[in-house]
Structures are given as structure tokens and as C-alpha cells.
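Archive entry. Fields below.
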Amino acid sequence: MKNLSDASCPIARSLTCVGDAWSMLILRDASQGLTRFDEFRKSLSIAPTILTRRLATLTEEGLLEKRRYSERPPRDEYVLTAAGRDFLPVLILMGAWGRQYRGEGRLARYIDAETGDEIEPVAVDAVTGAKIGTRPIRVATPE
Amino acid sequence: MKNLSDASCPIARSLTCVGDAWSMLILRDASQGLTRFDEFRKSLSIAPTILTRRLATLTEEGLLEKRRYSERPPRDEYVLTAAGRDFLPVLILMGAWGRQYRGEGRLARYIDAETGDEIEPVAVDAVTGAKIGTRPIRVATPE
DNA sequence: CATGTTCGTATCATTTTGATAGTGACTTGA
DNA sequence: TCAAGTCACTATCAAAATGATACGAACATG
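PREDICTED_STRUCTURE:
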């Protein structure tokens, strides 16, 4: 797909760095604590060529950071940056959509690790508290 | 990418139907009221071959619905279903991420169409009201 | 010193994408 | 009435991305 990184639409811009399924699944796994090449490879059953490329892109884009965890042999792991961590709510919300509309069979649930309660994610406007989607939204394009 | 529609992860399931940039941009445009082939084509500068395929997939997956708006000549438009409309919060939240982390230059803003106030989207837990990402999340896998 | 672990790269077939041109069924304007 | 325009596509084909598999490099372990 063509490069949308200079589009005026923030959705399009986001999609240029994380607009494919593998990247999002890598971020999902990283949010659950996976950091190493082989962890991702086994968890996702992804071809190593693709994984290499995706990890490199996510690192370039600033969602992951390469960190050396062993000097000999030289070994790097990939940890989430602040930008990467802040993408988690998008994934969780996408998961909530999937649960609602693609929810046949047994599905994983998101649980608050401390209270043990199931999380029920919704997007709201931080100012008014209104659920996103319940009121019409207009897009204001600059100049 | 391989088919993840039977994975137990709801994020993976969502990604099988909307896990690519074009589909999400089509949904974005559809949420803004676009319905016709040529509207999408011009808005997105997408090749007609791809657009045909994406619209067909989104229709099969139940996010869009084909509706005849002219008998002669036979013409169909694509309107969002409930599932398609409910995907908007995911996009808006992704846009908020893009604004924060890819926000150089002039960017479009989301405005409440009635009040005119800018929307500041956040994902929260509907039960506790806590922002998603501020507390650790555990994934509970079934059986 | 043989085997295993980890993080990859090389190679190559298959699949997907994307650009461009064309088509069918009309409508509209001169 | 006839040329031009609209709209929703399909056909064709080159280019790019994906994915499967094999292999490599740099060690650690037994």
C-alpha cells in the first residue's frame, strides 16, 4: 500500500506503521510480556523472514526498542516503548469488537490482573464521558 | 496471512476481517457517509480491483451491506451494518494514537457534530471506569 | 567435540497488489 | 439521434510482498 504517513488523517498515519495483522499481533504479544525473536516466532507461527522485517519496522517506527540482554553470545530482545504500550488500548478495543461480532466458540477474556474482574472495554470521550459512536462525529480538516 | 478466524484470541479474529489498511480506511470513509464505489475510489485513490475485493470481503464479513439504489441502470451502494458502525470506536482510538505519536504537521480533528467540541478519545473499562493500560491485564484462555 | 539454543539470512515459489485499459448498461445534453 | 458522460465494475499483467524451508553464526552445555 502506498505511503500515507503524510496524510492529514491520523488514522491513515497510524496505519502506515501498524496497519497490518502481523504487527498488531506482535504488539499484542509484546504487551503480554514476550520480548524475544523465538518467543514471537513460536507464538505466532510466523516465518522468520517476515518476523525480522516486522520487528525492524516496529523498531524504526518507535513502537519497539532493541535491547541487548546478552553480550556473549550477542542477543537482543524487543521491548515496548511508550508509544508501543499506548497502542494496547486500540488492540483491546479491537478484541472487544471481535468478541461481540466474531465470538463463536471459546474465546480468551481480558482480566484485570489485580482484581480478577473481567474488563469490558469501551471508547469514550474523555471530556464528556460520552461513548464514542453514540453521537455524530465530524472531521475537521486543517485549513 | 494465514486464517486466524478460529483462534481463541478475539484480536486475531478481528484481524481476519479487518486486518489491513484498506479495509479500515474504507470503514473510516463509510463512517463519514460514503457509500458508493466511486466515492471510495476517489477518496482513497485505490485501484478498482482492490476496492472490489475489499468491499466484497467487508460485505461477506458483515460489516457492510450492499443496497440497490437504482434499478436502471442497476447500481448498488455499500452501507455500514451494526457491526461496521461498531468498529468506528476502534478507528477513532487508533486516530488518537496517531495524533499523539505521528502528529507532525496539520492533522484532521474529530469534532462532536452537535456541540462543536473536539473529541478526546480514551478506552476505559466500562465497569470500573479505569483507563485501559493503566492497570496490568491478564489474558484468560478458555478450557 | 557433538549437540542444542538463539537470532537471524538466503533462496525461491506462490500470492497479493496495483496500474491501466476496457466494458456494459444506462443517462444526459446538443 | 448520437456523441459524451457516469458508474460499477472486470481483464490483464508487471511488480512487490509473503511464506516455506534451508542454512549460518556465535556461542553454551554435556
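CURATOR_NOTE: Residues 46-50, 53, 70, 72-75 of chain A lie near DNA strand D (CB under 10 Å from a C1').
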